[in-house]
Amino acid sequence: MHRFFAPAESISGDEAVLDTGETRHLRDVLRIRPDESVRVFDGIGGEYECRVKEIGKMRTKLEVIRRLEPSAPESPLDLTVAAVLTPPDRYDIVVQKSVELGVKSFIPLLSDRCEIKVKDAAKKIERWRRIAFEAAKQCGRATLMNIAPIIEFETLFAESAGEIILFSERDGAGFDQMEPSRKITIVYGPKGGWSDGELELAKKAGAQIITFGGRILKAETAAIGLTAIIQHRFGDMN
């Protein structure tokens, strides 16, 4: 069955309503007709089998048949990725793959050696949220990954809860020293690495500094590859 999104407030009793964008996709792209069956997810973990009742210009009414298990279950690991901003085409990929890897929250981060100006990046927030939305539809997740506003490096340590793991090309412990936790924020740096001041701040804040072997990884490679390893070690990719 084709899969659509309806926010929880649009699902009540045995009826669900699709908005204009999802209606256009259903009607004009997929050419679905009344009485056909579709799947609907609500962004907070609910997934349903529905029957199309009425297709209008602005919305589609569906009959909720039964609740379903999402195709992709949520990881037991409450995982946040905080990644320093990189050129948009590369950053788009990191956002998309974070959804596929079961990340719950994503934080765009500024650092001393950030390649992108904040005023340019701020325009991309809605784009990243759209990418996360489309990735959730395609990979079978019923929960939307939250995209937070852009924040400064220093602010991250004041606002984050749980264990913070900062990956660095220097001055860190081995990967086998990582301490397990059910709530983790993993922090990825820019192409030029962290400044001395940033590493010192992270240490004072109690973050685990991890240096991953001797390989030099591009920022986007590290974000995707190491997130997968974290999910394997502490989450459900095992």
Q: How would you explain this protein's 3D organization?
A:
The chain is an alpha/beta fold and 238 residues long. It folds into 2 domains: 66 residues, Hypothetical PUA domain-like, domain 1 (Ribosomal Protein L25, Chain P, Beta Barrel); 157 residues, Alpha/beta knot (3-Layer(aba) Sandwich). Helix content is 32%, strand content 26%. The chain has 7 helices and 13 strands. Strands 7, 8, 9, 10, 11, 12 and 13 form a 7-stranded parallel β-sheet that branches. Strands 1-4-5-6-3-2 form a 6-stranded mixed β-sheet. Helix 2 links the parallel strand 7 and strand 8. It is elongated, with a radius of gyration of 20 Å. It starts with a strand and ends with a helix. The mean pLDDT is 91.
Please summarize what this structure is:
This protein is of the alpha/beta class and 238 residues long. The chain has 7 helices and 13 strands.
What's the number of structural domains?
2
Radius of gyration over all CA atoms, rounded: 20 Å
Number of helices: 7
**How would you name the CATH homologous superfamily of the largest domain?**
SPOUT methyltransferase, trefoil knot domain
Mean pLDDT: 91
Number of strands: 13
Query: What distance separates the N and C termini?
Result: 28 Å
User: Major beta sheet, specifics?
Assistant: 7 strands, parallel
**Which structural class do the helices and strands define?**
alpha/beta
At the fold tier of CATH, the topology name of the largest domain is: Alpha/beta knot
